[in-house]
Request: fold
Amino acid sequence: MSLMALRDLLSDNFPQINVIAECTTAGEAEKIIKREQPDLIFLDVELPDKSGVEMLDKMDNVTFDVVFTTSHEKYALHAIRMSAIDFLLKPFGENDLRKALNRFEKKKSNEQLPEKIDGLFKNLSRRINPDKKISIPTSNGLEFIRISQIVRLQADVNYTNLYMSDKRKILVSRTLKQFETLLTPFGFCRIHNSHIINLKFIKSYNKGKGGVVMMDDGSEIDVSRGYKATFLEAIDVD
Reply:
C-alpha cells in the first residue's frame, strides 16, 4: 500500500486525524518527527535507507505511538506480534485502519514503547539469523543442528522425527508442539496434527479440501483443513 493510498484512507474516513507529513525515508521521517512532535506515526518495517525498527531504536526520545505496516515478510510480522506492537498487514482497508486507530485512542500512552522496540529488535535478530542452531538431546548428550537445515518434522507419539536437508532422519524426545513453539518464528508452519514444514523447502502445493504439499526431499504431506488457512496465509495465497 502506497503513502497516497494510506493518506486517502485517512482523509476520506477519519476527519479527526490530521496528517502533518508524509515521508519516504527514515532520515526524512526523523527530521519531521523531531520538528512536528506527532502523536502517532504509521511506519513501514522496511524503508529505503534503514528499517523502521532501526530508526526508532536510535531515537533518543520517543513521545509518540507507532503502528507498523508490513506486507509479506512473515518473519517481521511474527516478531512484531511477539513484541506486542500494533501493526497493519498490507493490503489493509478502512476496517483494519479503524481498529488500529481505536486501539490508539484507548491507549494514548507510549510508556512501554522503548521496551517493546528493544524486544522487537531481539525477535527480529533471532528470526533472521540463518546460522542459528538448536540443541537436540541424544543418547550421548546433545547434538547442535542448524535450523535452516531442517526440511520437515513429523510427530511420533511423544517423539518427533526431524528430516534434514542432508537426508538424515533424527528421532528426538520432544513433542511436535514443543517444536512448533520453537520454530514458527523461523519460517516453519504446522500444516497437520502430525507435520511441521520448513516453508523454504516447499516444491509445490496442490489444492483440495486441505491440499497436498510436495517438499524438495520428495515427500508429499497432506494439509489438514484445520491448518489450511494458516498455511495459505504463510505462503501468501488467497
In short: The mean pLDDT is 82. The CA atoms of residues 88 and 96 lie 7 Å apart. The first strand starts at residue 40 and ends at 44. Helices lie at 3-13, 26-36, 52-57, 74-82, 94-107, 113-128, 176-183, 225-234.
